[in-house]
Write a structure and sequence with these properties.
single chain, 397 residues, alpha/beta, five-stranded mixed beta sheet, 11 helices, globular, binds S-adenosyl-L-homocysteine, rRNA processing, S-adenosyl-L-methionine, SAM-dep_methyl-trfase, RNA binding, PUA
């Protein structure tokens, strides 16, 4: 039986949650004397027992659970989940009917009213990601609700909890047709190979759709360096946009066959493109030694990276990364600086950019900015959940 717990909120949290803040932070609630089960429903109240909201308990690194409703009478059941999912589906009507794009986010956690749960669409297949054991305890109702609202060709899932940072190699198939991977999806007419049953990642980060399009549109006649390139999705966009040549750099060995595959599915001869399995920071020295320079440099590092030799944190080291990139960017060239680190905002990110260019005595102009695309819905009035920050910078001299 699911536990129902009455939990008293601290006064600051009452104000935030009443204003629509969806996350239940660890210190938002009065310490409870007994342990709570993951998935417990929380009746959140003020000090007089007055109702504020209903949420669920599910430990994630950012908090201990999420608000589900601020209507006291609303039941958290299959009907509730079906309503949330169908509202989310309705908001993506344009994407569902698009012929140019067949992969996008259908349900974006807190932005669509259920934190800890995301659902992505890949050419008929649905991939559900569960971010806590708590939300996973609702899976029966949620899968039934999903089936009621949309026609699923097949369903896959990712369990993003209890893995101690490692992805346990389970089979991610849930129901329906089994996918044949790689599955080919379209994004603004560009093809990408994805695999929904191959570890934590699928081969493409859907939140960068508009940035891939922007790079495509800037690339004609340009040389492009794609650092932290993963499966080379940015390189493919550049090549299709008419780039004179792309160089993809990633230290993961798997990035090589995965990048070759992304080029192949787009009928691009991968031998005409440069793919390097190496540390980006070693590549910067290599490029300097060989006097290589590029018209466009894409920087999209993970928030944290550790190798035997070094650690890199975007919050600390982004200015240094930009300065290294500037050394191998042609005058008049462009740097696409991206980060998904949620611990700082766009304003702060721009101070990193300013610092790097000042220290290099180089003028610059920000020509475009991107955050999450529309399908990655963010809760109203809480831009801190909009973790993606991408700035396209023109290097002046
Ligand atoms: N830009 C990619 C996603 C990058 S994910 C895209 O849009 O598809 C981060 C990647 O950085 C991973 O593939 C990881 O292998 C790589 N990586 C982490 N540290 C690195 C380093 N020091 N040098 C090169 N690649 C690194």
């Amino acid at each position: 039986m699911r536990q129902l717990r009455e939990v008293r909120l601290q006064s600051k949290a009452i104000k935030d949650i009443t204003n629509g803040y969806p996350l239940i932070l660890k210190d938002a609630i009065e310490p409870s004397t007994s342990e709570m089960d993951e998935g417990s429903l929380l009746h959140l109240v003020d000090k007089n027992g007055g109702y504020i909201a209903t949420g669920y308990y599910g430990m994630q690194n950012k908090g201990i659970g999420w608000v589900l409703t601020r209507k006291e009478k609303e039941q958290i059941d299959k009907k509730f989940f079906a309503k949330k999912i169908s509202e989310a589906v309705a908001k993506r009507a344009n994407l569902y009917t698009s012929e140019d794009t067949t992969a996008f986010r259908v349900f974006n956690g807190e932005g669509d009213g259920i934190g800890g749960l995301t659902i992505d669409f890949f050419n008929g297949f649905y991939m559900v990601s569960w971010y806590s054991e708590g939300i996973y305890s609702f899976k029966e109702d949620i899968y039934q609700a999903l089936d009621e609202v949309v026609n699923t060709r097949g369903v896959y899932e990712k369990l993003r909890f209890h893995t101690n940072g490692q992805y346990v190699g389970q089979d991610d198939y849930v129901s329906g047709e089994k996918g044949e991977f790689p599955l080919i999806i379209l994004e603004n007419k560009m093809k990408y190979a994805v695999d929904l049953n191959d570890g934590a990642m699928t081969g493409i980060f859907l939140d960068q759709r508009n940035v891939r399009k922007a790079l495509h549109d800037h690339s004609n006649g340009k040389t492009v360096l794609n650092t932290f390139s993963y499966t080379g999705a940015f390189s493919v966009a550049a090549a299709l946009g008419g780039s004179l040549g792309t160089t993809s750099v990633d230290l993961a060995k798997r990035s090589l066959p995965k990048t070759i595959e992304q080029f192949q599915v787009n009928d691009i001869n991968h031998e005409s493109q440069d793919i390097k399995v190496m540390n980006v920071f070693d590549y910067f020295s290599y490029a300097a030694r060989h006097q290589l320079k590029f018209d466009i440099v894409v920087l999209d590092p993970p928030s944290f990276a550790r190798t035997k030799k070094m650690t890199f944190s975007t919050a600390k080291d982004y200015p240094k990364l930009l300065k290294d990139a500037l050394d191998i960017t042609n005058e008049g060239g462009t740097i696409i600086a991206s980060t998904n680190n949620a611990s700082f905002n766009m304003k702060k990110f721009k101070t990193f950019i300013d610092k790097a260019f000042k220290e290099k005595n180089t003028r610059y102009k920000i020509i475009e900015e991107y955050q999450l695309p529309e399908d990655f819905t963010v809760p109203h009035n809480f831009p801190e959940f909009n973790y993606l920050k991408v700035v396209i910078i023109k290097v002046m001299n």
